[in-house]
Each structure stands twice: as structure tokens, then as C-alpha cells.
């Protein structure tokens, strides 16, 4: 089963998105094989929710806060269980858009397997975890303006990479274009500058989740990142799914996170942390290449949110913070891990081989989670095809 299966999108899932049936973008909810127009549905029910839904994006709804989000979900479930086929459009008949305006973007680094794998590749001979890793959720501020909806072409970026020996750098299209499987948390309710958000209040702020592919140019990244961190190697495109799944839909997927291995400062503990039993699948040109599990991710979204704001930094509606690459042992969430930085070829069932991504390659990430009943629920997909660099000549 892939998470595009309609059965994954019953009343227990109901992810929100933005679709265009031909007359402009509208807010909708994915339901089975289609998308239901929420302005039309709420207008027919004479619900005041129509004001939040009669919009070209989810922005107004995101800003409305937890009480409204929960009421809306119950109402939509009720309406769809009584009049399931009204105000629906087949997915094939609509265009899907970026669901919300992304405010700030933070990318964490919360999978221990991924952190240790990358350490080995980027910093051989050094300890597998930096001293900070078990003490705080390491992350960096990313580039919100280049977050693009699923399906947007991913143009091979240009940049500098290390030259031979200690020689000058080389410039040209990246030779190490990679994908990163991530889960994104979408902030609905903002916060006040100077006032940290306690992790126990995370649910007042986190509206839901979206799939993320944090495209990465590993050669550009490796040359530029010391000492300030990722810059151009990750800022050229970050793809997000079209569907934002409300956090309540994941209640049945909640599990304890992996055991803490070090005592934490009080601001990072003291509530019932949200581990999540989400299974991802990554396909390259249609072939399944990895199936990472979110349950192995060490730092939780509550801890990430508490850490992000402990300095007094404020949240804005539309902020996106991503888990970091989700890697499990034997099922990593990136090609740098799968191919040991290109030293090992990945054999695809069609007889071709890959190390890093080639022009024309298509990557599709999907995910599912347990629902409240026997059926699983879907988190949609995030898809991207690699387009050639606009610069043909390398300078050396
Ligand atoms: O270990 C490093 O130097 C680099 C790590 C990454 O590239 C990963 C990153 O973007 C954060 C993540 O996705 O986990
Ligand atoms: Ca990342
Ligand atoms: Mg990025």
C-alpha cells in the first residue's frame, strides 16, 4: 500500500490543503479520492467557520488557535459523515498549491542514527555525536522563502566545493545532490517575543504536520558549513507536501520517544512527550529505496519547540520546524547514508545504479501512521524531479 491510497484518507485523517478547481485557490480537506471545498461545506451548514475557510490559503485558519482547530475538525467530521459526496472535487480535476505561507523555518537534527552516520562521513575520526547532541535538539535556521510545494522542479544548484588537496575551490553544478526525509511541524498560533513557550503548551501552537524533503547539495555543504553551519547547500529548495495533517489525527500514533540518555535542563522536560509511530517510504524513479521510521527520532516536537523559544525567540503563525532527517538503522533518510557518500552504488530494480541524484530523477516520499481503528492514515506525499543546472560550464 502506498500513502496515495484513498483508504488512507477517511474521516480519521482529514488533512487540510489548498486546491484550485480552475477559479482560483480554495481551502479544502482531502477525503478519500477527492478534496472537499471547506468554504462551500461550512456555508451550506451556516457555520461561521466559512470566514476562515473562504480564503486562498490556510493562513487565517492556522492563526485561529487550538479551540477553533479542534471544533473545526469535529464539525468537518460530522458534515462529511452525513453528506460525504457534496462539494467534492476529484483530485485529478484540481491543482494543489502551497497550503500556507511559510513564516520562519528551522531544521533540527534529531535522529541519532542520522547524526552519527553524518558525523562519520563529514567528521571521520571525531566522536559520533558532538558534545551538545544529547543535551539539546541541535538545529539551524533555514530559508523560508525557498520552501516549495510538492511537484515543484528542483533545479540542480551551483556552488563551490573543495578543490584537490589544499588547493583552491572548484565551482559548478553540485555533483552530490541528495534528498532528506523529514517530518515538518506547522505552527499555527504564534508567541510573544521574550516569553519562552513551555513544551507542555506545544499543542496550543502546533497545528499539524507536513512531509518535508530537505534537498541537500553535499559537496557545497561540506565545503561551506564550518563553522557557521549549512548555507547554500540547503537553501536552494525544500519541498513540502500539499496536505497538512492536524496533530489530533496522530493521537493513535503516539508512543513514548526513545529513552533519554542524559539528564536534561528543566526547560526540556516535564510533560508527556510525543513520540510518533510514523512509517516513511522513499521511492527513486518508482523504486522503494528506504523505509525509515519516525519512532527512532530522539528529540520530540515539544522539546524542539521549547528549545527554539527558550532564548525568548517568538513564534509566528506559519512557522515550520522540521524533525531533521529521519534515519533508522538499515533504512536511512538520505542518499549520503545509503551510498556512503557515493562510495557504494545503489542498485535499482530496473538495472540502473545510483549514488547521488541525476537530472531527470524523481523522488517521492510518503508516510502512514496508525489510525484510531484498524485502518492506517496517510500523510500524503512530497515529490520532486531534478532539473539540470542552468549553468552548463564548470570553471575547472
Ligand atoms: O552532520 C552534519 O554536518 C550535517 C548534517 C545534515 O546535513 C543534516 C541536516 O540538515 C539536519 C537534518 O536533516 O538532520
Ligand atoms: Ca535537513
Ligand atoms: Mg532546505
TrEMBL record:
Pathway(s) the chain acts in: Amino-acid degradation; L-phenylalanine degradation; acetoacetate and fumarate from L-phenylalanine: step 6/6
Alphabetic keyword roster: Calcium, Hydrolase, Magnesium, Metal-binding, Phenylalanine catabolism, Tyrosine catabolism
Domain of life: Bacteria
EC number: 3.7.1.2
Domain Fumarylacetoacetase-like C-terminal: 107-385
Chain residues that bind Ca(2+): 107, 180, 182, 214
Fumarylacetoacetase N-terminal domain: residues covered: 14-85
Cofactor annotation: Ca(2+); Mg(2+)
Entry binding sites for substrate: 109, 123, 221, 225, 325
SUPFAM superfamilies listed in its UniProt record: FAH, Fumarylacetoacetate hydrolase, FAH, N-terminal domain
GO MF: fumarylacetoacetase activity; metal ion binding
InterPro entries reported for this sequence: Fumarylacetoacetase, Fumarylacetoacetase-like_C, Fumarylacetoacetase_C_sf, Fumarylacetoacetase_N, Fumarylacetoacetase_N_sf
Annotated positions binding Mg(2+): 214, 234, 238
Active site residues of this protein: 114 (proton acceptor)
GO biological process, one term: L-tyrosine catabolic process
Top enzyme category: hydrolase
Name of the protein this chain belongs to: fumarylacetoacetase
Species whose genome carries this gene: Acrocarpospora pleiomorpha
Lineage: Bacteria, Bacillati, Actinomycetota, Actinomycetes, Streptosporangiales
Amino acid at each position: 500500500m502506498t500513502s496515495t491510497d484513498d483508504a488512507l484518507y477517511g474521516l480519521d485523517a482529514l488533512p487540510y490543503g489548498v486546491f484550485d478547481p480552475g477559479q482560483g485557490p480554495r481551502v479544502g480537506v482531502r477525503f478519500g479520492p477527492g478534496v472537499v471545498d471547506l468554504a462551500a461545506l461550512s456555508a451550506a451548514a451556516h457555520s461561521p467557520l466559512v470566514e476562515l475557510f473562504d480564503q486562498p490559503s490556510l493562513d487565517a485558519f492556522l492563526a485561529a488557535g487550538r479551540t477553533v482547530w479542534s471544533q473545526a475538525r469535529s464539525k468537518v467530521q460530522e458534515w462529511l459523515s452525513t453528506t460525504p459526496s457534496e462539494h467534492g472535487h476529484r483530485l485529478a480535476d484540481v491543482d494543489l498549491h502551497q497550503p500556507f505561507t511559510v513564516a520562519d523555518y528551522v531544521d533540527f537534527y534529531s535522529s541519532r542514527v542520522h547524526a552519527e552516520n553524518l558525523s562519520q562521513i563529514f567528521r571521520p575520526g571525531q566522536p559520533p555525536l558532538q558534545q551538545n547532541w544529547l543535551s539539546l535538539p541541535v538545529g539551524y535556521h533555514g530559508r523560508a522563502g525557498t520552501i516549495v510545494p510538492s511537484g515543484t522542479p528542483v533545479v540542480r544548484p551551483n556552488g563551490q566545493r573543495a578543490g584537490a588537496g589544499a588547493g583552491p575551490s572548484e565551482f559548478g553544478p553540485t555533483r552530490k545532490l541528495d534528498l532528506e526525509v523529514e517530518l515538518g511541524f506547522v505552527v499555527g498560533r504564534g508567541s510573544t517575543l521574550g516569553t519562552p513557550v513551555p513544551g507542555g503548551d506545544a499543542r496550543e501552537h502546533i497545528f499539524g504536520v507536513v512531509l518535508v524533503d530537505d534537498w541537500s547539495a553535499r559537496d557545497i555543504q561540506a565545503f561551506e558549513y564550518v563553522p557557521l553551519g549549512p548555507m547554500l547547500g540547503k537553501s536552494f529548495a525544500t519541498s513540502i507536501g500539499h496536505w497538512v495533517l492536524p496533530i489530533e489525527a496522530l493521537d493513535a500514533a503516539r508512543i513514548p520517544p526513545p529513552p533519554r540518555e542524559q539528564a536534561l535542563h528543566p526547560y526540556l522536560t516535564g510533560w508527556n512527550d510525543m513520540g510518533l509511530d510514523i512509517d516513511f517510504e522513499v521511492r527513486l524513479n518508482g523504486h522503494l529505496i528506504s523505509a525509515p521510521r519516525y519512532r527512532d527520532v530522539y528529540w520530540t516536537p515539544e522539546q524542539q519547540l521549547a528549545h527554539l523559544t527558550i532564548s525568548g525567540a517568538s513564534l509566528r503563525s506559519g512557522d515550520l520546524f522540521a524533525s531533521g532527517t529521519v534515519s533508522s538503522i538499515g533504512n536511512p533518510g538520505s542518499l549520503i547514508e545509503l551510498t556512503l557518500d557515493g562510495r557504494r552504488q545503489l542498485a535499482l530494480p530496473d538495472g540502473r545504479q545510483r549514488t547521488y541524484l541525476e537530472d531527470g530523477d524523481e523522488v517521492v516520499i510518503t508516510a502512514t501512521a496508525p489510525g484510531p481503528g484498524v485502518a492506517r492514515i496517510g500523510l500524503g506525499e512530497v515529490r520532486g524531479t531534478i532539473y539540470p543546472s542552468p549553468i552548463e560550464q564548470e570553471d575547472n
